[in-house]
Amino acid sequence: MDSIIEFRVLGPLEVVRDGVVLRLGAGKLRVVLAALLLQANRPVSIDDLVDKLWDGAAPGDARGTVQKYVMRIRRLLGGGAEDSAVRTEPDGYRITIPTCRLDLHRFSTLCAQAARAAAADDDVAESALLTDALSLWRDVPPLSDVPSPPLQRDEVAGLVERYLQALDRRIELDLALGRHAEVLGELAALVRRHPERERFWAHRMRALHRAGRQGEALAAYREVASLLAEELGIDPGADLRAAHREVLGAPAPAAPVAAPVARPPAVRPPRQLPMADSGFAGRETELAAIVDALGETGPRSGAPVVITGMAGVGKTALAVRAAHGVADRFPDGALFADLRGHSPAAPTAVPDVLARFVRTLGLPADALPTDEDELVAAYRSLLADRRMLVVLDGAASAEQVRPLLPGSGCGVLVTSRADLAGLAVSPGSHRIVLDVLSGPDGRALLAGVLGAPRVAAEPAAADELVRLCGGSALALRVAAAQLVLHPQRGIAEHVERLSSGDLLTALRLDGDAATDVVAALDLSCRALDPEHRRLLRLLGPLPGVTEEGFTAAAAAAATGMGRAAVAAGLEALAAVSLLDRRPCARYRMHVLVRRYAARRAETEETPEARDRARPAADGPVIVGHPLPRFARISNS
């Protein structure tokens, strides 16, 4: 009678023959076996095995050493090259085993069965199947006894994420089924083991609340909010805030009440759009243009709508508002990704966005391609028969956006501080350059945040606040938020406070980097070459740069830099929305950008350079038209 061999990777690596755990020996043998088992019934190249074994520092006889480890695994399992479970492939090896003999395959099967139970709205069955699936895990993270940094990084991290997602879903179901008392102890341990996973905190808050322990639920919220702020510098996410509102909004139910449970994304169309900003005002022309572009038919159907503009001008708010307004045109849902093109963190990697999108669209995690081109193909194939809206916020470059564009039939909205000119060439785009808010629209934004009566009581002060902020939506929202925090303060008094000190320093909210105007402009400058950053600094002190426009010749004359270098630098600044392009080859600088540039000049330029860029009060500064005949002289 043949022996029964089972393989276990959801914990320390184990091979069990007839109920007896075999001794595996050397660490590198475990690396080869684990790499083969994680790709069971699929070929693994020798190059991949070499990488897993030596992480880029392979010896000269690496391939021969791999062959020796494979021979030892065959002897361990029984059989030779012809009849062993480890088969030779053209450029590698494959371990061929029944799916029921590998715990990872059984886990995947049970999760798939749970998804089918979810599709049938059978919460009890889904919970039971996920409980069975999770019981296969003997330790987290798994394969801790396999000494391979590449395997731990590339394979184990993904396994842990699958485990945590299944665990998250099972707890969600248990709460919906009224089992809050049963999960409280488990959640107490989980938030200590995975303090950065907000969902576990939200589950714990809801379980405590439904158990009648509202005070502890609120204490948990304060604890996680403090942790997120101190460790990551972020505020609680949407789910945590929703749990907080749930705890605050009503007494705990007297008896367990089953809450509705969200179906998996493959069952219900995804609706990933963020909440639209309250107090959104104006932009009727731009909204109409976006709606028209997304509804266009013919050769330009499906061309992305690209919204560009300076930091804080309101690109994301406009895109989200427009996306909500056209949601009914896209019955198959909406996908949203923050590409972090101008974020303190690195831009979001395209494969990470693709992987999240295709999982949302129903592709099982264990079926995800590892090659980026294959991920793009899978993404576009999954979208091919759907009418969906894709919103890509904060793009760094056209190269980051192109792989995320659907093949056809979907709408796409992209926002960026960069001009993304390449998208106009391929695949073609609808382009909207977002300017600052007009005076009436700025007042309407203030009224939306402060209330119409408060703005109507001080119309002149409201107009002055809009002017002081240069129509920047971000600056106006920060100023309005400060007035909300100080309801006794008048708008005129606040304008005086802002005008009497460092405006850029004053326009920030403590503890919220996303509202910091200086930080936003720092991020716009991050990708610039040093000489282009210096040009911005030298332009800052010049009078007239915020008016109707100046030319490259005028800027070169005023800064003392070469005309060709200045011309290239002005285009580089305009490409990231630190300057506005104006008619007749002119440029204009926003008032807040000018304040920022002048501040940088004070700290980063020599006194001589600052003096050259800050002329005497009675000395003319040449701005506007090219020298010499059409020079515009300004003594302001």
UniProtKB/TrEMBL annotation:
Keywords: DNA-binding, Transcription, Transcription regulation. Residues 1-97 bind DNA. This is BTAD domain-containing putative transcriptional regulator. Gene3D superfamilies: P-loop containing nucleotide triphosphate hydrolases, Tetratricopeptide repeat domain, Winged helix-like DNA-binding domain superfamily/Winged helix DNA-binding domain. CDD domains: BTAD. It comes from Pseudonocardia yunnanensis. SUPFAM superfamilies: C-terminal effector domain of the bipartite response regulators, P-loop containing nucleoside triphosphate hydrolases, TPR-like. Belongs to the AfsR/DnrI/RedD regulatory family. InterPro entries: AfsR-DnrI-RedD_regulator, BTAD, NB-ARC, OmpR/PhoB-type_DNA-bd, P-loop_NTPase, Sig_transdc_resp-reg_C-effctor, TPR-like_helical_dom_sf, WH-like_DNA-bd_sf. PROSITE patterns: OMPR_PHOB. Residues 1-97 form the OmpR/PhoB-type domain.
